[in-house]
Design brief:
six-stranded antiparallel β-sheet; 6 strands; mainly beta; elongated; 145 residues; 1 helix
Length: 145
């Protein structure tokens, strides 16, 4: 099933692997355009599809910051502000809001670019998710610095 998923290289030019996205810094982590296969019978994009994309987008900075595997342990808040339509260009922005011993909490905002002839951008979704760094056995591990 084709979804139009497109991951961006979001490492800023002045960033290095030793200085990944810092807490409080908002970064574009994912861009995707939903396709007809992602829509329900009303023509709106399935909420579950959006949730999956938010989970992917939210994991980018924790994976970079922890320098390894992470897993989602909590969806603390998830708000659908407006419907998403086929052809909307979605941009996912992530901000690290908390760094613990093994966990990282991220705020994700999803913006939709609509109507290319009369372009306007609207916030369609926002969420707070928590990820935990894990080792090769799936057990929590301390974050590396």
């Amino acid at each position: 099933m084709k979804t139009g998923l497109s991951l961006l290289n979001t490492m800023p030019a002045d960033a290095s692997p030793s200085h990944p996205g810092q807490p409080g810094q908002r970064e574009l982590v994912l861009r995707v355009m939903p396709m007809p296969a992602d829509a329900n019978a009303n023509g709106d994009i399935f909420g579950g599809w959006i949730m999956a994309q938010v989970d992917i987008a939210g994991s980018i900075l924790p994976a970079r910051l922890s320098r390894g595997r992470v897993t989602t342990v909590a969806v603390n808040e998830f708000v659908f502000k407006q419907p998403v339509s086929i052809g909307d260009l979605l941009s996912f922005y992530a901000t690290v809001t908390r760094v613990g011993r093994t966990s990282i909490t991220v705020h994700v905002e999803v913006m939709a670019e609509r109507d290319p002839e009369n372009l306007h951008v609207v916030k369609v979704t926002e969420a707070n998710l928590t990820y935990v760094a894990i080792d090769l056995n799936g057990k929590p591990r301390p974050l590396t610095t």
